[in-house]
Amino acid sequence: MSDGMFRTVSGLKQGYDPDEVDDFFSHARAVYEQGPAAALASKDVRSVAFDMVRGGYVTAAVDAALDRLEAAFVARSRAEFVATQGQQGWMDHLSEQARTLYGRLGRPDGDRFAAPHGRQQGYEPADVDELCQRLVAYFDKGTPLSAAEVRSATFRRRKGHNAYAEGPVDAFLSRAVEVLLGVE
């Protein structure tokens, strides 16, 4: 990835700040090439945020590049783990993570995540629970589900105690993406 590799939107539309995107990808490339002691992981790639500016980079293209970069960091982590712990160690590691996720999935619909504080906005529980049911089907029956599908899930917004707080849902889905990427 090189500076300026993304197309920009017209000067009337907003896109990601080119300087921030170029700086991040330059940093990520340097970290990736340095090896295992580097200070950037797949979760850091997934959680990066860029300012929106007029005439910025096309967001869909940058997001797709971030998805590929995240998968590359997970693949490298898997290779390093397998080199030191063996393939069975990697599978045990994934199984432990999956069991933790599955514990939350075992809760009834509407009770999987805490509500936001006060009248803050959160996610519509029915939307989140629908994705959770797909994760259950993946773990129970091997029904196909990709990290990209989980990563791109969107939820309607809702206020108050009848919603799911965004933080716990986002953290849970980040862990689910890591497990799915570890298997892919």
Please, could you describe this protein's structure?
By secondary structure, the chain is mostly helical. The protein is built from six helices and four strands. The longest helix has 47 residues, at 59-105. The model has no long low-confidence stretch (mean pLDDT 83).
| Radius of gyration from CA coordinates | 18 Å
Helix content: 55-70%
**Low-pLDDT segments, ≥5 res:** none
State the end-to-end CA separation. Answer: 23 Å
In spatial order, strands of the major sheet run 1-2
Quick one: overall form? Answer: flat
Order of helices and strands: EHHEHEHHEH
Beta-strand proportion: 5-15%
Extended strand count: 4
Mean residue pLDDT: 83
Number of helices: 6
The major β-sheet equals:
2 strands, antiparallel
User: Could you say which structural class the secondary elements and strand pairing correspond to?
Assistant: mainly alpha
Protein name: DivIVA domain-containing protein
InterPro entries: CHP03543, DivIVA_domain
